Amino acid sequence: MHKLYTSALLFFALLLLGSCASSVHIRALAPAAVPMPANLQSVATANRIIPLSRRDKFFDVLEGAFTGEGVGVDRAGADECVNVVGQALANNSYRFKVTQAQLQLLGRGREFFLPPLAPRYIQDLCRRTQVDGLVVLEAFDSDMALSHTNGTRTVKDKEGKEHQVPTVHVEMVMKVVTGFRTYGATQGFVLDQARQEDQLVFTGNGDNYRDALRQLPPPEECIRRVAQRAGDGYARRIAPSYIEFNRDFFTSAKKDELVKQGAQRAEAGDWAGAETVWQQAARNLHPQVAGRAFYNLAVASEVKGDLPGAIDWAKKSAFTCNNSQARSYLRILNDRLRAQELVREQLKSVPKME
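^ that's the sequence the OP posted. Answer follows.
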């Protein structure tokens, strides 16, 4: 998630603790970290971690058996990772047209990142697949770490007396390291290269270590879930993608019922009606009432996608009524406006925006 939205979530969590507030769910496009050239309009995905030699296949089997992750789980995780990249590019963005083809390419060796594929080979693949570029998973490796702590829990016997019994808490950290490259068909060159590390923590509890382990998902399921995160993360790196976040708004103000009435309409989904009521509340001479009304009008404008309007309302709340929450919100809105302009720039080559 982009830094500005992480800051937003933290800020509004503090706001919720400090005053009476409700929240609304917003979905918006966030810019890609690495913009792609305008002539890259269609892509196919490819998996390049299929071992080249029998020797490499043997080491893959040996590694899976030795680590306890299972035989072939990295290959299955890599397939899932590539699937998710394609799905995320197709469903969570409209920057690229994504072909259904998922190419399987030989290439995995013992080193993590192989040299890039030859430009002529890329051009030939793109021509045969009828795309402008390839998104290729070229490295995939998983690592599992287990730890446990001993504790106790309280139980009551038949007589109602409390006793302490031992328990074990187990944590499994599953880490997946991936390597992606995006190639362009025009020259066959690498347009982007990224090494990513993603991990998830899985926990289990039991009366003993073995019981706690049984509460953990199978390693192959854990790898699959981390692989999904890795695939989605790379898709967001190269294409503007939708993110979801919450915005809080005031539900009351002392000595004024209009802020509350507007909040009730907003909570029912009637944002137009809420705006009408809050505009009346904004004429209140008390700075706290007007400040909260202005603030809520800023949220209402953001909900309907009017960021410049939201910024104007937030300025009135912050500087006319000295609302401290609005000053923080104003910074977030300005960041969102810059991000929105960047998204427009990255999508200007797309023939039609939905």
